[in-house]
Amino acid sequence: MSQVAKRYADALFLLAGEKQIVADVNADLEELVKVIETTPELLSLLDSPKFSIERKKQIVAEIFANANEFVINTLVLLIEKKRVNETKALAQEFKVLAAEAQGSADAKVYSTRELTDAEKDEISTAFGKLVGKGKLNITNVIEPSLLGGVRVQIGNYIFDNTVANKLEGLKRTLVG
C-alpha cells in the first residue's frame, strides 16, 4: 500500500469521522473506483498534462455532482498534487479504516461453489472471533481447483482447510 494513499485516506477518514459520514464517504469512494475501473480513460484524462487543472476540476464536478463534497475535494487535491493515480489505493485504505472502526474486516473466502448466506454468516462468526473482529465482510471467490473445503483470507491471515491443501500435506509427508 502506498504511503501517499495511506496519508490521504487517514486525513479523509478523520474528516468523515468528525462529521459522522464515514459510511457515505466509503460508498462514494467505492462508486468512484467502479467508475475508474469501467472507464480507465477518465484516470488518464485526469492525469494528462494536456488539460488544465481548472478543466479537470470542472470534469470532476460534472461527473461526480452527487458525490460527497469531501470525496470531490480529495479527488481535486489529488489532481492538483499530480497524485490522481493513487485514487484506487486511497479508496482501499479508507475501506480498511472504515471496517476497523466498525469492528469488522474484509475477508475473501475461496470455495468450489457459491456459499449460501447461512454459510457466510457461520464463517463470519467463527473466523471473526479468530482475528478479533465482530463481523467479516465476505467476498466469495469460486475456485474449483480446491476440490472441497474453504480457504479464508483476512488481511495477512490465511486459514486453509481445503482438500487440495490436505492432499499436498499428505504428499509432503509420504514423499518426504
UniProtKB/TrEMBL annotation:
It comes from Lysinibacillus antri. It is a peripheral membrane protein. PANTHER family: ATP SYNTHASE DELTA CHAIN (PTHR11910). The gene is atpH. GO terms for molecular function: hydrolase activity; proton-transporting ATP synthase activity, rotational mechanism. Keywords: ATP synthesis, Cell membrane, CF(1), Hydrogen ion transport, Hydrolase, Ion transport, Membrane, Transport. SUPFAM superfamilies: N-terminal domain of the delta subunit of the F1F0-ATP synthase. Belongs to the ATPase delta chain family. Pfam families: OSCP. The keyword Zinc does not apply. It is found in: Cell membrane; Membrane. This is ATP synthase subunit delta. One of its GO terms (cellular component) is proton-transporting ATP synthase complex. The lineage of its organism: Bacteria, Bacillati, Bacillota, Bacilli, Bacillales.
